[in-house]
Amino acid sequence: MTNHTRPLFLALLCTHTVGFSAKATDEATDEATRRGQPDEANPTSFPHLVQPRPAIAQPSPSHSCVAASRLAHAVGYMSVAAFFRQGLRLAVPLAIACTIYLYLYPFIGGCAFPVPSRDPVEAFAATRRLHWPYKEGQHEPAPTLAPFRLLALGDPQLEGDTSIPTAYLGVLPHLRSLAKRVTFQAEHPSLRDRLRVILHDIIDVIFEDVPNLFESARKRFDLFGNDFYLAHIYHSLYWWTRPTHVSVLGDLLGSQWIEDHEFDKRGHRFWNRSFRGGERVPDQVAMFPVKDFNISGNLDSQLADKVWSRRILNVAGNHDVGYAGDLTPERMQRFERVFGKANYELRFALSANYTSRNTSLTEGASPTTRLDPQLRIIVLNDMNLDTPAKDAGLQDATYRFINSAIDTAAPVGHEGHFTLILTHIPLHKPAGVCVDWPYFDFHPPEEGGGVREQYLLSYDASKGILEGVYGINANPQAAGKGLGRSGLILNGHDHEGCDTFHFVNQTNGTDASLRSWEAVRWQDALERKLPGMSLLPGRREITVRSMMGDFGGNAGLLSLWFNETSWQWEHEYVDCPLGSQHFWWFTHFVDLGTLAAALVYAAVLVLEARGVDVDGKYFGFVAQVRAAVEEARQRRRRTAEMKDEGQDKNET
């Protein structure tokens, strides 16, 4: 014990004595003075001690606490109330700042659905006016919002029991094995073998079972928080941006290999926790493409129809149903039962009050090529477009759906329709354009040889979508000059995200059949002015960055609006990331810690107001703990010295 702390212990240990004499107090004071510490009888040495102690101390425990707490102040210790007060001065502003950012991050980050002007400042202003409580009395024009605003979310990948060791190994499995062997419930060829296995089980209990208990508890807590992290992204953006539609672009769950009961558990978490308030698209609404189709709804820039904003357009991903070599009817049925159909189309008409199309149809271009503005959404399961497939029947059903979508599409060259494809695996592109590259892996022949893993669709499958669904042709003499139908492709799978432009150069070579598809980054395409260039038809593909915490909690905001001048749909897309899940955890830990500290501080103030010497009791407890620690240290030192003396004697 140092000379500096000895007076503190002498004073604090007196809190456990019923009374003490003035002589003992004077000795402690003299000792403090001799060590260079202030004399409590002389308050001028510490101006903040405004009340001098009585000359004669009464034998009272409260006086001992006063002496302890005052001496604690004298040697530099902060009182309990002051400690919490100073801590809250730091914690409260930090908690407020983190909470404000976390719960208002779309506002602080300037997130907003793009508007027809493509000006992000105007888009943010239009979104902000939606939340201004006095907008009814404003003289400003109503917000100009796009009639179709899609909140696109990629790859949430809800994990579950397969990531929790105790869920698939059991609780302390080696301990149960050890008990069977010790009680001779398990047979062994010899006692030596029994002892060997028992020793192994003991080691496994210590180094596997016990760590697995802690890891399982941590993982359960992590999954619980991750569900609410994803929910925070969905609800915050839904509240702030006011989307008309929402889509999750595949990999809703984390594994296609899970059993049905685990699939249902994760599905329940999806609908009741991460995407609470969302609705499954009804089967009778999710239509198979037919000539005599029904309109699924009307698009309006106003916020009247909220039915489709609650419905979530779920896309089947590889972790939901498996790749072509893993996809079975049973996996497809359970996905469609919980999340909705895997293949369907929706058609939305533009409200009559949004355009003056009756006038437009009679002016400008021939009315025979101008159709009523309509948005066609195709939700496509592209998991089994490539071969070999495990189930040929499911693959045939997917191709029948695509062929029907092609047959029921508007003729190439007609204007006014727009096709938005929502799928999971991105189109083929050369290595280096995006993070993922063309990669295929197959099951061995004895297991069917089907596709086990793929990063991108094959070139032929991608070409089939671009030339079939969109009607783009490498021959400029084809219908509509080969420019095809207007549209956009939205997908997931590549967690890093990507934005590309697929095009075919109609001037390459002399034979159209030899002209191949190319892909470049969208930003590079804009700099080279490729979109809209003559004899260079193409379509944009947006791979939405994952909403998982490791990828910044991203969300995509896609706007579509109709240009009456060109009689074409136009679109724009922006990202809105929250940030790592660690910030979500940090903010809530800071909030809970600050709240707990505030409650303790309030309790301390109440106790002190009732005459309880909190400082004396606390420092007395600290002194007890330190004395116990010091005693244990001294005991270990004496034991070590005795051992050293014994060794010296033996050597002598």
UniProtKB/TrEMBL annotation:
<keyword id="KW-0472">Membrane</keyword>
<dbReference type="InterPro" id="IPR029052">
    <property type="entry name" value="Metallo-depent_PP-like"/>
</dbReference>
<keyword id="KW-0732">Signal</keyword>
<protein>
    <recommendedName>
        <fullName>Calcineurin-like phosphoesterase domain-containing protein</fullName>
    </recommendedName>
</protein>
<feature type="signal peptide">
    <location>
        <begin position="1"/>
        <end position="19"/>
    </location>
</feature>
<dbReference type="GO" id="GO:0006506">
    <property type="term" value="P:GPI anchor biosynthetic process"/>
</dbReference>
<feature type="region of interest" description="Disordered">
    <location>
        <begin position="25"/>
        <end position="48"/>
    </location>
</feature>
<dbReference type="GO" id="GO:0016020">
    <property type="term" value="C:membrane"/>
</dbReference>
<dbReference type="InterPro" id="IPR033308">
    <property type="entry name" value="PGAP5/Cdc1/Ted1"/>
</dbReference>
<dbReference type="GO" id="GO:0005783">
    <property type="term" value="C:endoplasmic reticulum"/>
</dbReference>
